[in-house]
């Protein structure tokens, strides 16, 4: 039943799920490819976890058209994204920017890897320091010899 | 009447679970064997009661008894029989009952197959299982009763959500739950070990088959769900990093780590404390997944706040079980003795690295899934974390993991020879590079990362095969000897190789589709031609059709290659009148491991229709790889080493006959 929420929402949002319409597509393939790449980074504000590239909601279409307008006007990719963010807020970014409030989000993998590695190294050192590999005492050697001979 | 009996059976199941939760524990503390043995029979009785209850609900669905509210809300008399039956778990109440059914099913299995378990351990494990079962039975009875009546009974039902009327979705939840809930056994074993303060290699040998079984089912469930989303949702995606998907992916990642650490514990008695922690963590993530999906918290924090009964109840279960288990861990983990020693470069070392990366990946997915919720709840700031974030972070973590996978099986336990392993993997790595170079050349340059990813997949597959070749001594000894050695290898060696090969296949599929798929969006009128990949499609027009509980418009396409018609594709838009809901049924044709995917859009004013067509190269590798991974799990599960009871029983039987003579 794991996908019911998603499925339900898709149904509510609009069906059939077809995003980019033929009339939106830019004539210049290079520009269109850039538009698609940018669209995949931007969230459809009224959908649940869909990029404007995947969604067929009205608002997503407006944003796709907007992105293409800015690109046609000669904006760089970053400029287009900044422009959309300035109008719709950071909520629109599917990959949040690295800043104070996303510190833990971005820092988590690095932090865990560092902590894990350090813990492992410390544990290995401690294990190495233990007399586990110490040479046998004379008594032990004698005992071992006896066992081996028998 | 029968409905009330089903309801009553559920109440009795709750009562049985309460008995099973306390008396065996009392038996363990007092050393009372009769009380301990009670756990086994209680587990079986509890399973029979819940099974009866579930059968009653299924009966209500099959007979379209609309006096049951749940049936009325989710069924329709004209619905095909198969969907009447699978519709039982196509809704909140029914799916929770299925969850409970699978949980008590696993308890009953432990009680039936666990004859050779130490009796205190068995009693404690079954008691812990019963705590979980009791909590969920209570949840169902108090907040999500599937047997609630509706009087007067309506004449017709509201039908199941049409998107869910699909064979893929019918199999998906039970598989997923078998995986989710299968980890409850590992959890119960871990908690029991903490309560007893004792843990040894025998414990790991008990936990590993359960982990393997749960992991195999979860792999199947996730792959099935992914394929279902691919062909049903209509835009050709197969993984969306949706929170609901992440909820099932996190237990899988943690379960994969558990699978590997339990191996170290079984063979070398090392990593005991870590394995216990992972077992708790894995099931906690399953519970968290249930909470995320069932509480509505994902749609929005506010939706959760408006109808909080169910959400708060599951949250309470979550807090009690996860909090309880971790507190127990904090209190008792120091009682567990640390085990075997190993050098950093060794098979243990490689498996520790595997665990480090997999755990980090799990935590990354978890943070990404919950961060927007927590940030909004704490500061009111709204951010989104979606596919681009996960692809980047998760991808970066997976690269080193995949690169070291083939090394693991080639390193010796305790102290390994890294240079030797690297030397033996030289051929695999070299061929991987050649594959990458060939892809780069064939794609006329293009992105560098994609050929490298494909090369990495080839290296992974060949690396796994290298292990089998080396262990059989192929090329060094005579063919017959090598073959005998190969067939004499433990099944778990093949299981490992298969699972790693499967991973390689999936990787190749993912990279190829992502980098090399082609997509065409166009408005087509009947008779229009369009080129996609190596094929051309001609649109032949729309036709009307009718199914048992829907009407449809089907677009007909003829596929040709080099001017010769090869096949045809139907792609349709359906309307389910009971819910006035349209769906798209994508038209898909398979060519080898690749597929053509056709989806219909809006009808345009000029008589044309918007059509979206994809050429998806090697897409079947994604799920084919998952199938191979599952095969690895099953082969490994059949290893005689894991059938714990068998050898000891046989020996006892031999002794008994010897004594009789």
TrEMBL record, chain A:
Residues 131-150 are annotated as: Disordered. Residues 138-150 have a biased composition (Basic and acidic residues). It is a single-pass membrane protein. It holds the Pfam family CcmH. One of its GO terms (molecular function) is metal ion binding. CDD domains: CcmH_N. Residues 8-148 form the CcmH/CycL/Ccl2/NrfF N-terminal domain. Gene3D superfamilies: Cytochrome C biogenesis protein (1.10.8.640). It is found in: Membrane. Residues 1-19 form the signal peptide. Keywords: Cytochrome c-type biogenesis, Heme, Iron, Membrane, Metal-binding, Signal, Transmembrane, Transmembrane helix. One of its GO terms (cellular component) is plasma membrane. The chain crosses the membrane at residues 103-124. InterPro entries: C-type_cytochrome_biogenesis, CcmH/CycL/Ccl2/NrfF_N, CcmH/CycL/NrfF/Ccl2_sf. One of its GO terms (biological process) is cytochrome complex assembly. Required for the biogenesis of c-type cytochromes. Possible subunit of a heme lyase. Belongs to the CcmH/CycL/Ccl2/NrfF family. This is Cytochrome c-type biogenesis protein. It comes from Sinorhizobium saheli. The lineage of its organism: Bacteria, Pseudomonadati, Pseudomonadota, Alphaproteobacteria, Hyphomicrobiales.
UniProtKB/TrEMBL annotation, chain B:
The keyword Transmembrane applies. The chain crosses the membrane at residues 6-26, 38-62, 96-114, 121-142, 175-195, 207-229, 249-266, 273-292, 312-331, 352-374, 394-413, 425-443, 449-470, 491-516, 613-635. One of its GO terms (molecular function) is heme binding. Residues 89-295 form the Cytochrome c assembly protein domain. It is found in: Cell inner membrane. It holds the Pfam family CcmF_C. It is a multi-pass membrane protein. GO terms for cellular component: plasma membrane. InterPro entries: CcmF_C (IPR032523), Cyt_c_assembly (IPR002541), Cyt_c_biogenesis (IPR003567), Cyt_c_biogenesis_CcmF (IPR003568). Residues 315-640 form the Cytochrome c-type biogenesis protein CcmF C-terminal domain. One of its GO terms (biological process) is cytochrome complex assembly. Keywords: Cell inner membrane, Cell membrane, Cytochrome c-type biogenesis, Membrane, Transmembrane, Transmembrane helix. Belongs to the CcmF/CycK/Ccl1/NrfE/CcsA family. Required for the biogenesis of c-type cytochromes. Possible subunit of a heme lyase. NCBIfam families: nrfE (TIGR00353), PRK10369.1 (NF007691). This is Cytochrome C biogenesis protein CcmF. It comes from Sinorhizobium saheli.
